[in-house]
Target: FAD/NAD(P)-binding domain-containing protein
Amino acid sequence: MPATVVILGGSFAGLHIAHALLKKNTKDLKVVLVSKNSHFYWNLASVRRIIPGVLKDEDIFKPIAAALKKYPESSYEFIVGTAEEADFDAKSVRITTESGESKTLSYDQLVVATGSHTAGNVPWKAEGTYEQTLALLKSTEEKVKAANHIVVAGAGTTGVELTGELAFEFGKTKEIVLLSAGDKLVNGDIIAPAAANELKKLNAKIQYNARVTETRASAADPAKTEVVLANGETLTTDLYLPTMGLIPNTTYVPAKYLNENKLVDVDEFFRVKGTTNVWAAGDVVSKPRAGFMITQKQAAGVSKNLELALAGKEPIVVKQLPMDILAAAVGRSRGAGRMGSFKLPSIGVYLAKGKTMGLPMMSGYIDGSVA
Model:
């Protein structure tokens, strides 16, 4: 019988690994891809999609089924469903399909790549199903269109990019405020001054040392939101958009395989510690941090180690990026970034990321050329 590899998660890591395995071996292998989302979501462009009239839904969503149809039907199974409970000792995972059916999958090798979600009702990551994420994007777009005052909370890369998109489009007609919990943007990274300068050029306002402790509907106008800060100040806004923190989708993973941050604990091979046949990549690992290019390297490494494991060979150390790269698009003509400690010019970040938000790379996940 062919070996069965179950991949949990159909985003950047999971779909990459599925392609890598299926391109190499469709005879002695069965790949079962489980995704709560029926569509591959290019969430890197979500901050631009909520700007009215700039991107269409079909620009950032593609059916996962279409990405797999070129492979023999006997070599894979695609299930729209959610992982509920994994038993690494029994080599099984219980899932709930989109129709509500409970199903237990057995595996020879397992990949944990279910990603993360964001705190608050915002679409920077897939929130639930394709239909739910789509609805959230559209409702956020409508709220952006109607608001005259918008507060973005969280000054990491996502917060900077979201503020940049809003200010590029509405900097002269709406008040856009970015709240930073610390005294610098992007956790004080060396790109912080450049990012702040580019945002100011777009008329965005930045408020430092402004950690949010509470949000509530305004008593005077329930349609508005009161944002309470740690220093006691309260801001009243038409629209509050949080971008703080990522919450790993690991509730189905037994607690002993998770660290204190609920992230999957892996070794240098990106094999889950304490197991011989469970691997993990992407936001569920966040090692050294969550990031698109970091996930690509992890997915490539896990794919290779799965091939070795299926051949009865020992894994190899997963290679990381030769240097840390951080880039933030700031609207549709600017940016701030670095390669290692080398600062990148604004125009360079715009051409590399801000111009398209990486959308041309999306086709690689559909035609399989990413792997």
Q: What stands out?
A: Residues 3-119+246-320 form a domain with the FAD/NAD(P)-binding domain fold (CATH 3.50.50.60). The chain has a mean pLDDT of 96. The longest strand covers residues 76-87. The CA atoms of residues 198 and 289 lie 25 Å apart.
